[in-house]
Every structure is written in structure tokens, then in C-alpha cells.
């Protein structure tokens, strides 16, 4: 324990001899009782000492010129810090009851009469010195206790934060584990259907109708797998800020109308009462990403609304915003889940998408794409079975005046000669058969070096080149083809599983004309091949 400061005793007397006698007497016991003795010759001097020090006891002469003992005592006790200092009055006159009363009223604790009897003085000051030392010890213990309490409070707060952070991490890990388990389930379902359909095609005695149905199943489930992969990649790109928007002025109402027409044409909204009220509103946006937002909101409404329910889609302008609202009469959203509907990797039991199948990331992607456009998305629901409303707000722009588009030229030519460079045997074989079935003259190569040789000997109009090739990759294939005068004019289309903006940049820098992300829809591939080969083909 730290060493305590010695208690101090103040002796106040205007008579020099009396002051010396008292201080000398007290000094005899100072070492034994461990205290210090200070002296003052007047009331004013005593007040100065009290301002500088704390005292265990004050021995105060009553009869002093100027400020007497009673006035000095009153001034000492008027100050908050010194109000509790015990004062012993010293007087040479026998005090009557009135004097004693006056002294006690001014804070005196006792009287001593001169000549002072040493034993009595010692007994009295010993009590106050011991009391002062005890009080000082208690104060220091209280300070230490307060400091310890502060440290414990800080430690407790830190531990509480660590516990909360650990619980948050555990919840996130649990949610991710559930998400991965669910992802495995979502991937296995279409893979199982594809595997069964492929096996069915190879069975003897299968009818032509059965083969056709199996093919449609394979095509449909392959598209479903592609959408799952696209959703995962899009969300990853959006969360990391790697989506680059191709922004142009567009009418949100027209874009939404096109999406709704697609839903009607494909029969996806047949069992629902689908209403629309679309007022024009122009925004600066990426049409593909805004269609993605619209589709996700419509899919969400269809998923959680029973057949026969109503879905209302509206667009309008409000101040500086263009607003899209999708309202349904479906299952609604519980109040405790409402703030989390746009979160990814939340608790599995709390996520709407997970109770009905799907990855549960569509609304997360909607929020991120909205933010990338400088907008916002909100969800509202009155509770379970009372429907829900999702409201998108995007910054409004003025209606641009655009020049009339030129009619696209349609070249008259035959089918282009195609070279396919693909290292995956199954993929190369199926792509070759498919292109051949559409009437294209196709040559194939299994790696980059063989592809370069085939390009020289075969002289194709167009080459489909996989990027991840053994030996030399697709980038190097494109660079060498462009460097050779015999092959520099071949149209080059990159086929890759990588779809980030950085991948597109590398593809174009290597010399490719187009960039397609696997799996490629056959109709899209045919369109790209035909549009890329708008030159006279080799006969």
C-alpha cells in the first residue's frame, strides 16, 4: 500500500512566546505519532495555511487582535473543503457557558485552558491524528476501489463486446454453413434431373416423345444451374464493387413493361392477377441490371403469393425520383424479419427465400444493384398473410431527345466456317455436334497450339476460343492469331467461365471481338456468331 502523507496540526496564536511553547511541546511527539506541526500568527495567516493544506486538528487562540478565534473558526468552516476540520480553542480565561456555546456554534470540538497540561494535550491531539490517518487511509482505499471498479467495468465491457462479436461470428458461420448446405441441395436437384434425363435418352425402347421430353428437361435444368451460378457471381461482384454499369438514359416504365410482357408470354404469371400502372420516368441506368432488379422483385412476389393472388406493379415520378413499386397479396413478412430481408447470410430460419427454395440472395442483389445506381430499395409489410410491398427509388433525369436509330443492315451471306478451340472433350464434342446441327462447317482443336495449326490450315471465318487452355491459354492464342497475317482477320469470340470487368478487359486487349460467359445459351451463341461474321464468307 502506498505511504500515507503525515497528518498536519496547525497552531494559531498571536503571542510569539505562547506559539513557540505550543509548537515545541507538540514537536516532542511528532516523530512518535507521525505528524507535522505548522504555525500561524494571525487569523489571516491561518486562513492562508488552510488554503494550502489539510489539517488533522487546529489549535486556535480565542483572543487575537483583528480577527479573533471565533471569526477565524467561522471563516475556516465556511469553506467546503475545510468545513470538517476539528478546532480546539485555547484561552487563558475561564470560559463561561455563553462562551462555550459561542465556541461550539463556530465549530469548536473542545476547549483547552492555559497553561496547557501536556498529558491532556497529547491525549486530545492523538485522537485527532489517528482519526485523520484513518480517514486518509479510507480515502486512498476508496480511490483504489474506484480505480479497480473502473478497470473491471472496462474489462466487463470488453468481454461483453467480445462475446457479442463471437456470437455474431458464430451466427454468421452457422448461416453460411446452412447456406452452403442449401446451395448443395439447390445444385443437386437440377444435376439429378439432368443425370436421369441423360440416362433415359440412352435406354433402349424409349419413345421419341420421351427423348424429346428428356432433352427439354436437360435444357431447362441446365438453364436453372446457370441462373444459380449467375446469381452467386453477380452477388459476389456487386458486394465487392466489381460490377461496371453500362449506363444509358432509359424509360423505367418501358423496361418494366417489357419484363411483364415476358412473364405473360412465358406463362409464368398465368395463375395470378397481374396488374400494371406504368407512368413514364427516365433514369440513367444499365438496362440489364435494372431488368435483373425487376425480375427479382417479380419472382419474389410470385414465389410468396398463392395462385389466384394479385400482384400490382406501378411506376411513377416523385420529386427527384422515379419509383417502382411491386405489391403482392402473399404471405407477408414478419416484423422481426422485415429489417433483414435484404441481408445475405442471415439466420436460415429467418430468410424468406429459404423457406420456399432458392438461394435467398435475390433481394440482396437487388439492394446492391439499387445502390450502384444511386438509388434505394425498401420493404414493407403489415405482417404474416397480409402481403408485402417493395419500393425501388432511382434518381430521375430529364427525357433525352434521341436521334432516330438507323435500320440495321442485314448482310446476305452463307454460314461462316467455325473453328472451336476447347480442351474439355465432352464440351468440345457437344458444341461441335450442336453447331453442325445448325448447318455450320466446324473444325475443332483440343488445345491452343493445335488451334493455331488448325486456324492456318482450315482458314475459318470465326473462332470460338476457350480461355483456360493447356499449354498456351486463350489470350496467347488470340495474340498469335492477330500477329499472323494469314489469320489476323479471323473473328474471335472468347468462351470463358470468368465474367468480371477485369476479365472482359483482358479479353479485349488480347484481340478478341466478343466475350461470352459459360454456359452460353444456344440462341445467344447463334446470334453472336451471325452478327460477328457479317463479312463475305470463304467458299
TrEMBL record:
Keywords: Coiled coil, Kinase, Phosphoprotein, Transferase. One of its GO terms (molecular function) is phosphorelay sensor kinase activity. Residues 128-162 form a coiled coil. InterPro entries: CheY-like_superfamily, HATPase_C_sf, HATPase_dom, His_kinase_dom, HisK_dim/P_dom, HisK_dim/P_sf, Sig_transdc_His_kin-like_C, Sig_transdc_resp-reg_receiver. It catalyses: ATP + protein L-histidine = ADP + protein N-phospho-L-histidine. It comes from the Bacteria. The modification 4-aspartylphosphate is found at residues 61, 466. It is a multi-pass membrane protein. GO terms for cellular component: plasma membrane. Residues 8-129, 417-533 form the Response regulatory domain. Its EC number is 2.7.13.3. Gene3D superfamilies: 1.10.287.130, 3.40.50.2300, Histidine kinase-like ATPase, C-terminal domain (3.30.565.10). It holds the Pfam family Response_reg. It is found in: Cell inner membrane. Residues 182-398 form the Histidine kinase domain. This is histidine kinase. It comes from Duganella sacchari. The lineage of its organism: Bacteria, Pseudomonadati, Pseudomonadota, Betaproteobacteria, Burkholderiales.
